[in-house]
Recover the amino acids of this structure.
DNA sequence: GTCTATATCTCGATAGAC
DNA sequence: GTCTATCGAGATATAGAC
């Protein structure tokens, strides 16, 4: 269903079969998954209420169990969807042609746009991690096997290459990875607090998001540039 | 205990009264608050279990209700503690003497250290925000009145001043604020995922945290430096 | 102040009609 | 496939002994 970029023919076949399976998600199932993502990202796996998910989806509780057996299984389906969108759908930008600043800028723009369009995604993953990442840990082997090159590894490769070629100074690529992702994500996580503390910000949200892309790019690109002094 | 730097006599009195009130927390109450912070930050307000909080604190459930009436009131006490630690205890670094790079470096070092020593703090606040910030919104007026100058506003002032004096280029200080805080926080939020995807990282955690401080400082300081080209 | 025992209620899950 | 009604586990909260 979710096995992307398989590494062998056997896995590839499973992958195809599963793609078929996943595209057969009915309208109702998709409604439930979307509602569940909202609810889980707001209240966590334990805090989420099946009744609220049903309400959001405009259905009744019994149907949730009809389609997804249990709350835990529903959570797992949502997790799988979120994880792939977040870590692998984003990877495409990083496979694009172009020099270091071009690829870096494209990635940041796409990442901020994705976060803006799917504000529930990062919070869903952060909660999973805060809860000790039980589903993530259990699913990891199959995820990594099926996706040897996700966004994080491609980003690391980008920084390593730019260091080697002299386009950026020598730094730990992992530190840079964290700085960029943090700078992108934290706007959406922190804005509700800051816009309450500093009310002038509230009306400028869309503008701030738009300006944010180049702000991050410039901070990182020039912050990584080799220095002469 | 938490109302720092009041700006008028009236507020100052409220401040003192609150210091008195808050410092009368007994050992048992502090144990409960610490256990509750852990539990709430792992499982959220609804997902947290009173039984688990009691277990963590080495007490029984009934005592939690004896000291803090209800789960909701316990949550509010934890919130107040966390918010003040997070936003106002940190502010001291920013009132220190020194030029732009000195103050900036000191803040980043202290912030990363604080996060490292209190890993539950940011997740607790992120969850509150994700749940729609109900407690935060209700408590905001008293918080802002008692703390006109918290860490966020002092950081903004630092960036504005360095822009004006020419020590950094003209940028939106709010964007820089978000980038720095995000870069600091996201290490602790994201590390569990990345160390699973890239197992080599696991053994280098402490070293990475230590190196992280100067990495962020250099990225931001040089990323903000006026450019000649 | 601290504990055990219990009341009360919420929520996940199921049975069974349609 | 969809719904109503309900069971039963597990949660918050309280009563009352010590």
């Amino acid at each position: 269903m979710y096995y992307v970029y398989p590494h062998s023919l056997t896995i590839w076949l499973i992958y195809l079969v599963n793609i078929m399976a996943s595209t057969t998600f009915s309208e109702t199932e998709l409604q439930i998954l979307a509602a569940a993502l909202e609810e889980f990202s707001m209240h966590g796996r334990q805090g989420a209420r099946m009744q609220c998910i049903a309400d959001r989806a405009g259905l009744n509780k019994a149907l949730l169990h009809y389609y997804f057996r249990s709350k835990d299984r529903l959570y797992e389906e949502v997790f799988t969807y979120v994880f792939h969108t977040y870590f692998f759908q984003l990877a495409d930008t990083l496979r694009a042609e172009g020099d270091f600043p071009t690829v870096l800028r494209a990635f940041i723009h796409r990442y901020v746009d994705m976060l803006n369009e799917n504000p529930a995604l990062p919070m869903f993953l952060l909660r999973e991690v805060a809860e000790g990442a039980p589903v993530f840990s259990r699913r990891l082997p199959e995820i990594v096997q099926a996706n040897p090159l996700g966004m994080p590894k491609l980003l690391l490769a980008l920084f390593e290459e730019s260091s080697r070629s002299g386009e950026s100074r020598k730094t730990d690529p992992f530190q840079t990875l964290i700085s960029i992702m943090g700078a992108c994500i934290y706007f959406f996580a922190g804005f509700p607090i800051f816009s309450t503390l500093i009310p002038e910000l509230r009306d400028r949200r869309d503008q701030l998001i738009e300006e944010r892309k180049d702000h991050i790019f410039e901070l990182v690109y020039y912050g990584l540039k080799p220095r002469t002094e």
